[in-house]
């Protein structure tokens, strides 16, 4: 019996866009799988809200960072497999340590509101890429002039980051789940990474030594798709 083709939906994180998924889409297409990339629309690409296209069949989502919280709840709820790349449930750590992270988000919002978008994103992307060179990042929203509505979405999603206190309620409890953690991540706090493991104790965990938030140099495409294939 031939199993239906796997249907994949991916969602990028804050200050990213769907172009980062091109190698993933190409590899999935070679397997005969369908692929959709959600798009928040920070830059020149128009927003796109993905939805499941097939009435039945295996479904999986792959998200990076804030992408878990940007996915529509109906999409997340119906996933049979979930891959979390440098992601989190709660972004700001609990306790006194969280104050520094909250102040950082609010400072970023003030800079965006004052028109300091280019410099702010350059600083953020350097931290996200580190310890790899920022030049290795794929093209993203900051590669071109950002429209006012895109900057406003960045500001809305900074507030969303501050409000993220748990794994989304739509997270499918029975889904096969893979957590890919970047151990040199400068964006997601170690406490937040630990909290994600505790929230999803049945998830498989891959810890990447020396890899930063953007996962540069990790060559994850084939291993992750093979992991999905094994459960397909």
Quick synopsis:
This protein is α/β, with parallel strands linked by helices and about 230 residues long.
Write a structural description:
α4 (98-113) runs antiparallel to α6 (148-163). The radius of gyration is 17 Å and the shape is globular. 36% of the residues lie in helices and 14% in strands. With 232 residues, the chain is of the alpha/beta class. The protein contains eight helices and six strands. The chain has a six-stranded parallel sheet with strand order 2-1-3-4-5-6. α1 (22-30) links the parallel β1 (7-11) and β2 (34-37). The mean pLDDT is 94. The protein has one domain (1-232): 3-Layer(aba) Sandwich (Rossmann fold), CATH 3.40.50.1820. The two termini are 13 Å apart.
What's the arrangement of secondary structure elements?
Layout: E1 7-11, H1 22-30, E2 34-37, E3 59-64, H2 67-70, H3 73-77, E4 81-85, H4 98-113, H5 117-129, H6 148-163, E5 176-182, H7 190-199, E6 204-208, H8 221-230
Parallel strand pairs: 1-2, 1-3, 3-4, 4-5, 5-6
Highlighted features:
232 residues, alpha/beta, Rossmann fold, six-stranded parallel beta sheet, 6 strands, 36% helix, 14% strand
């Amino acid at each position: 019996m031939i199993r239906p083709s796997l249907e994949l939906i991916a969602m990028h994180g804050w200050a990213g866009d769907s172009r980062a998924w091109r190698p993933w889409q190409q590899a999935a297409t070679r397997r005969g799988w369908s692929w959709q990339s959600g798009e928040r629309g920070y830059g020149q690409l128009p927003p796109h809200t993905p939805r499941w296209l097939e009435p039945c069949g295996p479904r999986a989502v792959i998200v990076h960072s804030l992408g878990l919280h940007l996915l529509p709840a109906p999409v997340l709820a119906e996933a049979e497999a979930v891959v979390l790349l440098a992601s989190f449930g709660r972004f700001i750590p609990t306790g006194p340590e969280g104050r520094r992270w909250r102040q950082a988000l609010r400072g970023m919002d003030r800079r965006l509101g004052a028109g300091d978008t280019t410099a702010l994103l350059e600083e953020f992307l350097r931290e996200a890429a580190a310890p790899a060179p920022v030049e290795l990042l794929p093209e993203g929203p900051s590669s071109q002039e950002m429209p006012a509505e895109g900057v406003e979405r960045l500001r809305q999603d900074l507030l969303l980051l501050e409000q993220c206190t748990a794994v989304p309620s739509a997270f499918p409890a029975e889904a096969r789940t893979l957590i890919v953690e970047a151990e040199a991540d400068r964006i997601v706090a170690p406490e937040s990474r630990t909290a994600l493991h505790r929230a999803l104790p049945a998830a498989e965990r891959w810890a990447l030594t020396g890899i930063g938030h953007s996962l540069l140099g990790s060559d994850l495409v084939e291993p992750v798709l093979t992991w999905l294939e094994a459960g397909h």
